[in-house]
Amino acid sequence: MNLSGPFIKRPVATMLLSLAIMLLGGVSFGLLPVSPLPQMDFPVIVVSASLPGASPEVMASTVATPLERSFGAIAGVNTMSSRSSQGSTRVILQFDQDRDINGAAREVQAAINASRNLLPSGMKSMPTYKKVNPSQAPIMVLSLTSDVLSKGELYDLASTILSQSLSQVPGVGEVQIGGSSLPAVRIELEPQLLNQYGVSLDDVRNTIANANVRRPKGAVSDGDRNWQIQANDQLEKAKDYEPLIIRYQDGAALRLSHVAKVKDSVEDRYNSGFFNNDAAVLLVVNRQAGANIIETVNAIKAQLPVLQAVLPASVQLNLAMDRSPVIKATLHEAEMTLLIAVALVILVVFLFLGNWRASLIPTLAVPVSLVGTFAIMYLYGFSLNNLSLMALILATGLVVDDAIVVLENISRHIDDGIAPMKAALLGAKEVGFTLLSMNVSLVAVFLSILFMGGIVESLFREFSITLAASIVVSLVVSLTLTPMLCARWLKPHVPGTENAMQRWSMRLNERMVSGYARSLDWVLRHQRLTLFSLLVTIGVNVALYVVVPKTFMPQQDTGQLIGFVRGDDGLSFSVMQPKMEIFRKAVLADPAVESVAGFIGGNGGTNNAFMIVRLKPVSERKVSSQKVIERLRENMPKVPGGRLMLMADQDLQFGGGREQTSSQYSYILQSGDLGELRAWYPKVVAALKALPELTAIDAREGRGAQQVTLVVDRDQAKRLGVDMDMVTAVLNNAYSQRQISTIYDSLNQYQVVMEVNPKYAQDPETLNQVQVITADGQRIPLSAIAHYENSLQNDRVEHEGQFASETISFDMAPGVTVEQGTTAIEHAIAKLGLPEEVIVKMAGTGDAFAATQKSQPFMILGALVAVYLVLGILYESYIHPLTILSTLPSAGVGALLSIYLTGGEFSLISLLGLFLLIGVVKKNAILMIDLALQLERHAGLGPQESIRSACLQRLRPILMTTLAAMLGALPLMLSTAEGAEMRQPLGLTIIGGLLLSQILTLYTTPVVYLYLDRMRRRFNKWRGVRTDAALETPL
Q: pLDDT at position 909, please?
């Protein structure tokens, strides 16, 4: 049966079919979203809760623990960790990979609701959650600065105007605001004056709460008219609160201004943002899942002049960070690489065939296959990203293989004097099954990735399906358009009329075949030596896999750095700010840095800061982002009590978000015995700091933050009628920035915050000035029933799986791979001899690396099994698939050796290269084996004569397809622009593997074929079964 026959005979229908494929693909291309990496529905949910004034220990015990117990009952929770700091708790839930993220989110919300009664009554709002995508970084950061307005007023503008407007831009998801807090009226009480007038903190709180209310008041009507009732019950500014009367004393009004300073300020004094050299409020913009980053950013930029126009003239809206230029440059480079790859493979056809007409055929066939793939990508909801574009670049070498096989076979028949139409019908029929075998087995290789599960399946799903789709479209094009064009465009061969290029190509082919024939004959006379060399390559594969350095993913240069500033435990906000200034100025002074934006304080604690460093384009800075980090570390001034950790921002992050960890790798200690954990933690930190393989180690320093513990004499308190609730209420009123009333506005809601004057919150001695009321109404100082003790507390409390834990973050030293670093850690921990009660494990990227490292051999084995099964079914043979698979060890040696010799690292991208090699290298063996079987069945040749003839006859298409695949990968290997670090390992792996496998498999394949054929014949003879090759008819 000739599948190509109807298409060869109906050129109009074939051209229209190809045109339809092009149109569908072209329209789909314009609809595809753009992103750095594929959309990964990675089931991670982060829950956040806040309780102003609460210590880390209180947040952990009263907020984190109840939530963790509820979350622990949710099915499919893989890991659960929490971090509680001053006034905030953050719980990270990672679910099983096959868990539906939306269903998980509903169960998380239900668990939060179920925990309502277990949470502190003073929480102003319930915990909230958000779904985290490790492949989704913020696409833009905007800054608001002003020389006139306060940061609270800027934050109000960002919250009420900008955030709402930006959220309405198509493609925009969450808009986060940082760098300050909403405006608030702050009541700063004077304890001495309160004591003098005999006023309690609750008296002040009740006065304010009763004076500022907002309730419905109804309406009155006389039957004809209606009047809404309003009152001056809402107080909006500090000046409105100052005259409030607390009570009358000796006939005179005691007003709030007599015992407190009332001012317009902000909700949280310990929160500050900056952009370059200016104080700023920052808006961090995230995109919706699946949205086109470029279109979304362009839409935001188009909206910026409109937003600037509605802002006060003194306010400047600046672009602090924009991901789109780097993404545009990366994708543009990938697109140019794709065009270069297409041009190179077409050049291969021209050099080997010497016929410009023949070269035009793949010029049409390849674009149809690639453009048609866009339609399938759109149907599957894929995007144009680094991985899908790499798939298309590599597909160039694969889809041209199909065109080459058909074109070369038809051209050979034309050279033998057969008319083009008849040659097209005959040639297409001869290679039809060969094409089917090559492409179906190749699709099986890439689709096997979909069954790997975990990170690999999520990350490379688009890559594998895109490649498989291009192969399927290529198969259709090769069986329809390519033979039809050969029949219509190629001219009959007339001896003596060849041009110079054709004559050169013919001489080249004759010399290659002649030289190959001589070497092949020698190999066939020394088959045992050849088989031994094949066994050696298998052993070398194993040895190289062991010694080649390994990593998770190549370090990307996204043009952005993330910085974390850690102050010593207990460092105050006012002391932290100047330290942050030193680091900010040092970073901004580097010639590669374009801008710096960040936050101090907030939910991270008063001794922590976070910064986003925007680098200049690669063409301007001339060095990688990692080199910039190394230079900054060398030039960074020493700041007592503070340290700056920098890391290159990556498109793929693990561990709950970019603000969760200060480095790419984390090491966790957990234990049910808190004493054991705290005893061993500093020992582990010291052991890791002694390792030269690690750098930028971020661990809890010192003995902890200062803490004042109020020790109440419960017997004395009971005698005086004072209970613990009264004591904690007084402290809450005085020191926790308590929000005691709400101001309702037409655009937003604002808080009234009460505390003692900050000057009375600087020394534990001031606790003695706070008074409580006894049962008989007497006012007594706290010192009458309690004394305080200075102690130490953790500035954060961490849990892992509901157990107490500690985290150590770090980066690998320059030149050290992840594998080398993790091995060094394992040896160091083994020497410590940790007790069984203390469990240690890698987290974040390190945990992801460990998981994929264990599964890599099984992934490769799975791909080999898939290929064997498909080929066994197609050839109706247990033996011939083994012959085809025997070509793979040499490709593995070439790939691993190229990585080793160039000082590279074996990553998931390199693993993709191995999968591709499995598909490409076996195609050459299929070309040989398929023709050898045909010659045995139809020409009556013996096994050695048939395989020798097949090798010689298929030499030219094998060389053409291999060279086309290598040249298709060459632009990847030589790439130096944005995104090169993702493309180079793939190109290097493919070229190294193809180069060595091409040299070896031309000789090992026929020898293995003959060896397995002899085994098959002996086995069948032993069973008494006929061994005629004609009985082995493939599907």
A: 87
Tokens matching residue 564: 């974390």
Contact 730, 782 (CB under 8 A): yes
Residue pLDDT, tens place only, 49-58 = 988 878 888 8
Query: How far is residue 969's CA from residue 359's CA, in Å, rounded to a whole number?
Result: 20
Q: Give the whole-angstrom CA distance, residue 184 versus residue 241.
A: 12
Residue 111 parent element (H or E)? helix 101-114
pLDDT of residue 335: 76
C-alpha angle with apex 383: 380 to 389, nearest 5 degrees? 110
Q: What are phi and psi of 175, to 5 degrees?
A: -120, 115
Its pTM stands at: 0.77
Q: Is there a single domain that holds both residue 419 and residue 539?
A: no
839 domain-assigned: no
Residues 525 and 468 in one domain: no
Please, which pLDDT band fits residue 972 given cuts at 50, 70 and 90? confident
Give the Cα separation of 71 and 91 in Å (integer): 10
Strand, helix or coil at 413?
A: helix
Give, rounded to a whole angstrom, the gap between the first and last alpha carbons of the chain. 11
Closest to 295 measured CA to CA, from 168, 136, 170: 170
Spatial distance between the Cα atoms of 431 and 402, rounded to a whole number of angstroms:
10
Three-state secondary structure string covering 790-833 = EEEECCCEEEECCEEEEEEEEEECCCCCHHHHHHHHHHHHHHHC
Q: Is residue 896 part of a domain?
A: yes
487 and 520 co-located in one domain: no
Please tell me whether residues 489 and 542 are part of one structural domain.
no
Q: What distances in angstroms separate CA 57 from CA 87, 644, 678, one per listed residue?
A: 10, 26, 15
Contact 58, 36 (CB under 8 A): no
What is residue 704's predicted lDDT score, i.e. its pLDDT?
61
Which one, of 556, 334, 369, 343, lies nearest residue 466 by Cα?
369
**Tokens 């670093």 found at:** 821
Residue 893's closest CA among 549, 543, 553? 543
488, 529: one domain: no
Q: What helix, strand, coil percent values describe the chain, rounded to 5? A: 55, 20, 25
Q: How far is CA 797 from CA 80, 176, 330, 655, 791, in A?
A: 14, 25, 41, 17, 16
Residue identified by tokens 């019950």 is: 233
Determine the structural domain holding residue 474 and report its residue range.
Answer: 326-494
Residues 771 and 902 in one domain: no
**DSSP for 625-656, written as a single string:** HHHHHHHHHHHPPP-TTEEEEEEE--SS--SS
Residues 259 and 344 in one domain: no
Which CATH number do you get for residue 201?
A: 3.30.2090.10
CATH code: domain of residue 463: 1.20.1640.10
Structural domains of the chain, count: 3
Least-confidence region, from 56-70, 692-706, 814-828, 1000-1014 = 692-706
Confidence check: pLDDT of 474 > 50: yes
Indicate whether 131 belongs to any domain.
no
Tell me what the pLDDT averaged over the chain comes to.
85
Residue 444's alpha-carbon distances to 25, 126, 369, in angstroms, are: 24, 49, 19
Q: Which residues contact 761 (CB under 8 A, 6 or more apart)?
A: 734, 735, 755
Please enumerate in sequence order all residues whose Cβ is within 8 A of that of 278, keeping only pairs 6 or more positions apart, or say none: 143, 145
Q: Which helix (H) or strand (E) holds 671?
A: strand 665-671
Burial (CB < 10 A; 0-12, 13-18, 19+), residue 765, is exposed
366 within a domain of the structure (yes/no): yes
Q: Of 793, 811, 843, which residue constitutes the final position of a domain?
A: 793
How many other C-beta atoms can be found within 10 angstroms of the C-beta atom of residue 904? 21
Distance CA 648, CA 638 (A): 21
Query: How do strand 749-756 and strand 183-189 relate by DSSP bridges?
Result: parallel
| 950 and 995 in a common domain | yes
Select from 459, 494, 529 the last residue of a domain: 494
